[in-house]
Amino acid sequence: MASRIPPSEALAAWIAGRRWFATKTRRIVGVRLEDAVPLGGATLAIARVRLDDGAEDRYALPLAPARDGEVADALGEPDFCLALLGLIVGAGAAAGERGEVRGVPATACPRSLPAGAAPRRLGGEQSNTSVAFGTTVILKHFRRLAGGVNPEEEMGRFLTERARFPHVPAFCGHLEYRAHGGERLTLAVAQAMVAGARDGWAWMLEALAEPAHRPATLAMLARLGAATAALHRALASADDDPRFAPEPVGEADLAAWARAVRAQLAAAATAAGEPRLVGDLPVEDGLRGLAGTAKIRHHGDFHLGQTLYREATGEPFIIDFEGEPLRPLAERRGKHTPLRDVAGMLRSIDYAAAAAGDAPWTEGWRAEATRAFVDAYRAGTRGAAFAPAADGAFDRAVAVLTVEKAAYEIVYEANHRPDWVAIPRRGLLRASTTVSSGRGAGAA
């Protein structure tokens, strides 16, 4: 088995150049294999990656047999991909020296591998890699791992099997690594493909490029706002499940959330190299209106790229419940105000306006798009325990959470796409002005 694994130095150089490597501002100083599982003519390695600051991250490394001494990714190999999906469909297992990879099917899982479903690796890779099997199933393989239940698995299973929420792809099952000592790591999830649906971000940019199609973007965002409201109601619907039961927002929550916003601002200032990126903001005042509402599970990394849009029927679908990949797993599984998702979508609208170019109409479109989404969300959450009854309290809280999200984006872009840092930086300064002035989300 060991002969199939490239040496540590070669793995380190290969990992450092991958899009999914999470800490591009750090240098890899060592790679240590924890296990290697033969599967489908390749090897699925579980590895510890040590960084120059002493930190360690764990990664799943699907490795094809080396060609000319070069490291090759096995997710480009059809036999390996079919073997991964086959473990889920058949509830099978593949053994390594220190553990096993096991498939766990869900109720929506097909009983056999789809006929003629040749694996096709999808583009747009970020912190994970997706492989489509014909037009029926998609497998999302995680790269950076954390011990415990991945929220993509947990949320997908809950929304499909318990809440029966119609605006998500049906959850088909997941793959996990089970160490002999008992630890479990989620490696991948399988979902049904949504026929006739397109990536929401790509659809939005194409529509914005054509003046005649821009009104359709506002209608899409209104539908997405209504679907987001329905998602949050679904996630708040299981009082008998402690993982999902709503809990009251108390003073300790508000204080912790304010600290988190300030910590994220400090991280953004460091990443941007601007110690005084923004001044002191009245964060606590902005969050005060959330007292007495409910905290629930929520998407956690909500933007247009986490949606699909079926233009023929006007149906939006919400995908990718993994949460913000730079945050700890326990935090991504935690309960919070779902208005964080609203803030995330407002930031995505800002990104779409920036991507459309510096044209006279973009600022007006951004304001209209924000209103379309927020108005539909507010209409769908009136009376919900997790949403402030007063519009002013709602607006002020969303403004603070928009600051937090923009600050997170600065850190993310500095690590992954340094040329994009200017976009969240502008958004952060705009949202900070909104928080300072006490105006509402529509101005963010």
Describe the protein's architecture and organization.
This protein has a 7-stranded antiparallel sheet. Strands 1, 2, 3, 4 and 10 form a 5-stranded antiparallel sheet that branches. It folds into 2 domains: about 1-195, no CATH class; about 200-444, Aminoglycoside phosphotransferase (APH), C-terminal lobe (Aminoglycoside 3'-phosphotransferase, Chain: A, domain 2, Alpha-Beta Complex), CATH 3.90.1200. It has helices spanning about 10-15, 80-90, 150-160, 200-210, 215-235, 250-270, 285, 330, 340-355, 360-380, 390-415, 420-435; strands at about 30-40, 40-50, 55-65, 70-75, 95, 100-105, 120, 130-135, 135-140, 145, 170-180, 185-190, 200, 245-250, 295, 305-310, 315-320. It has 12 helices and 17 strands. It starts with 7 loop residues before the first helix and ends in a 7-residue tail after the last helix.
